[in-house]
Amino acid sequence: MDFLKDSLLVLGRIATILPLLLFITLFMGKRAIGQLPVFDFLIVVTLGAVVGADIADPKIEHLPTAVAIVGLGILQRIVANWKLKSKRFDKWVTFEPTVIIQDGKMIPENLKRIRYTIDNALEMLREKNIFDINEVELAIVEANGALSVLKKPEKSTATKADVEATNLISAVSFPVIIEGMINQDTLTHFQLEESWLSTQLESNGITQIEDVFLATIDANHSLQVTLKNGVIPAIPPITN
């Protein structure tokens, strides 16, 4: 009998709490759903924890849960309005956009600052249908973690004839050195030796492989190198 009573109570809570949660989510606005900045993410996680506990445990008072949901929704709305009015406050509760690639070169310091690996960055580029880092003029990790990419002018547009005349494999670059470590699979794929790689590096004034943050190679054996402590061009400040 107690089991049936508790089951009916849980079903009743689901029927009442989900419409309230839907209303509060719509009240918070599309931005909270689509982008999930840091503070909004915390609000959503907290809402999930509160609602989950209320539904799963019949011993928890139902009304305080509803009050907590409404309170969280109002808090999120207040913070969102403060962020619109105060740029300083906005910086306190969210991440700054971070440039990770400029002029085809990764910026190691910025990658480390946001705790991204080279593989993370390359994966995000592939999701943008970019398989050669040298096509990128500027790549920015936005406050919500999404990647925005500006291609180099000569890479941004192509006619149908250009596409048909281009060997797609030649447009793909492969990592041959990652943080000072040689990727033997890439060398084997292109039937190259480490001596060839060393010669190419030396021709660019690089004598220590350990100094290389990322080096990529394409089907034409064109090598592009980013150094761990390379000179980074001045980047204008980027804001949300």
TrEMBL record:
Major site of localization recorded for this protein: membrane
Keywords annotated in UniProt: Cell membrane, Membrane, Transmembrane, Transmembrane helix
Subcellular localization, as worded in the UniProt entry: Cell membrane
Keyword Transport (UniProt): no
Domain YetF C-terminal: 85-217
Pfam families named in the record: DUF421 (PF04239)
Domain of life of the native organism: Bacteria
Entry's transmembrane regions: 12-29, 36-56, 62-80
Cellular component, GO annotation: plasma membrane
Membrane topology summary: Multi-pass membrane protein
PANTHER family linked to this entry: UPF0702 TRANSMEMBRANE PROTEIN YCAP (PTHR34582:SF6)
Family the entry assigns: Belongs to the UPF0702 family.
Protein name as catalogued: DUF421 domain-containing protein
Species this protein is from: Radiobacillus deserti
